[in-house]
Amino acid sequence: MSAALLSFGQRIGGAAFFARYGFWRAGALLLPHVIAVAILAFTETTLTAAAAFLLAWGLLNFLWLALVRRPGVAATLSLIMIGVLVLLSQLKYQVLMMTANFIDLMIVDTDTVTFLFTIFPALRAIVLLCAVALVPIVVIAWRSDPFRVRRLTALALALACAGWLTILEMQFHMEPYEAYYGGNHVSAFARSGVDAVSDLMTHGLMESDPTVADRLKSVEGSTCRPATKPPHIILVHDESSFDIRVAPGIKLPSGYGSHFLSFDGKERHFVVESAGGPSWYTEYNVLAGLSARSFGRFAYFVTRIAAGRVKRGLPAALGRCGYRTLSLYPALGAFMNARSFQATTGVQHFFDQHDLGTRRIEPDSFFYDAAARMIEHEHARSPLFIFVYLAANHFPWDYR
Predict the structure, then answer these.
(1) How far apart are CA 369 and CA 349, in angstroms?
(2) Can you give 157-193 as a three-state secondary structure string?
(3) Which of 150, 188, 226, 237 lies most in the core, judged by the most C-beta atoms within 10 Å?
(4) Would you say the pTM of this structure is higher than 0.90?
(5) Helix axes 110-119, 123-144, angle to 10 degrees
(6) What domains are defined for the chain?
(7) Are 134 and 80 in contact (CB under 8 A)?
């Protein structure tokens, strides 16, 4: 491999290269790499991220070289892919406060795509125009590229880049929550790919026993007939609320504990996943009646994985007993596929921040009032199950 690289370097090195092919062809060959370095400088924020970007860039180039053998064409195609990834990741972050992740490719996420085309109507035309404009660029690069690289050499270098990228991620592991920081679009995508592929190869999508003694009974198609009219049920998910009295030595205002008392003055505990973790673990745990931990490292994306797949849930069980099921959600329904996931568990009517007309963060009273209006309007028809999701306690805490 080193001999082939040396031979290739001699063929394109120094004055002989410029004399034979001209400055414009040399510039055309180097330009995609220069632009890639500029993208690195503007979007990657740490040395680890920069190293991951360069390895991902090398991996893409060598994979394309293994297919087309033309370094100019490979660099152009790689730059197009990197550019599209950065733009889509920035757009996703602008809307959902999360950068692109390799899991986005593994899970068919129609919610996010549909939502983006809905709030940005011009996006369809932009995508179409970009696709049309890129065709002649690739054609020109193909016809003007006089260089060739051996496929085995390119494949060996691609494997080397993939290996070093894997080692880098193993030594400096990236946590899923770093997607909320913004930036590092290419490196984060590449590093999340290493984690996802590694987990799939290790234990698959779920961490479950190969054999089990018991199985969940299917209740699909069953019904129940309550002897009396059931009561309305309001399930409140109080985001980031926590009874700090469990921590010793903290001074608290008088009457603090009353917030956690039931209407009859009693304090009851309901154990769910997960305090100190993503709130959608609790959402999945309560609505589906299952544990997010079954998904191991993929638990962070549990609602996205379960959407359209987990055919059971508390709302579905109540629906079989005549309940109409509603959900008031304080964020966009596309976030973590919340709309699709909750529909899978049996939520019949899902209202996100767009449907409710919220600003970025609303006080709890906004959602309580909305739930009260729905009960007043619908109570005569059938009993209601309303899942009220609050977010006033959620970060950021940089404003009143």
Answers:
(1) 17
(2) HHHHHHHHHHHHHHHCCCCHHHHHHCCCHHHHHHHHH
(3) 188
(4) no
(5) 110
(6) 2-203 (no CATH), 233-390 (3.40.720.10)
(7) yes
